[in-house]
Design a protein that fits this description.
Blueprint: H1 3-13, H2 17-21, E1 37-42, H3 51-67, E2 72-74, H4 91-97, E3 109-111, H5 122-131, E4 142-147, E5 153-158, H6 161-165, H7 171-193, E6 198-202, H8 217-222, H9 224-229, E7 234-237, E8 243-248, E9 251-256, E10 271-275, E11 279-285, E12 290-296, E13 301-307
Parallel strand pairs: 1-2, 2-3, 5-6, 6-7, 7-9
Antiparallel strand pairs: 1-11, 4-5, 8-9, 8-10, 11-12, 12-13
This protein binds fe (ii) ion and zinc ion.
Amino acid sequence: MPINTWLTRRALLAKGLAAASAAVLPSGSAVPDEASFSFLVVGDWGHAHSEGQRKVARAMGMAARRDQARFVVSTGDNFYPRGVTGVTDPLWRKAFESVYVDNALQGPWYPVLGNHDHKGNVAAERDYSAASSRWSMPADYYRHTEVLGSGNVVELFFLDTLPLSRAGDGFITRLFEPSAATQLSWLSAALAESKATWKIVVGHHPVFSTGPHGNTPALIASLKPLFDRYHVAAYVNGHDHNLQHIIVDGVSYLTCGSGAEAHPAAHSAESTFSAAVPGFMVVKMTPSAILVTFLDSQARVLYRATIPPRTAGH
Ligand SMILES: [Fe+2]
Ligand SMILES: [Zn+2]
């Protein structure tokens, strides 16, 4: 892609227009000439701005350049150990701006909140969108739409899974219940009305995982039925600091939480891949399939998978 196309796209997608949403992006307006596009996924990267994070960031830059990635998705735990204190917190520079410096990583970033972000100032993570040329978090949960050159629509639904993950937690449940219920009805309605060829849901907590945190029963109860009913192709999460691909009832569950460090992940009957190495994911959207690639901190390919549509034409 010529650089001027990239700049045009950045101008079109940058902040506000892209984030605010989404559903109004005119068909094919951003990239009418391209049949496919790629984006990157990284999670749990705010770990003390470590050398591990910097290595993954460098590898992401290489991959983003090679694949002309359109944007970056963050699966949360963006800032450790207690989120950020405000939009002027030095952590923005230390853990984000001065780390993801490659030109190819200057497009929009679409993040979700993790449990560590919730320990800090959540409003500041939203408000930073106004101060940044790339950070694009319009709300705690939101949707974003892209259009392939073929006209096929790709829709991403970004969740705040902390309230959802606490269901069944006694006293805590009652605290989170109202926001969880509101968010679930929003997601259900949004998935039901979406005409996208590809629906991808992003959250911090895993639905299924073979890592230290394991499955999240509350999310299996609340999210899985929606994914099954509304033909969601993939759920992408962090929280467990590793890379995993688990397929349950035709839905791909992709853990991408080793943006700075790695914790062990086991195999299960339903897991097709797991790796306890720092890394990230490249997702290539095409009209007929989603191509998923996990890469390590030297941009070496660890695993590739092809995800077919859940149902033809829907
Ligand atoms: Fe984490
Ligand atoms: Zn977490």
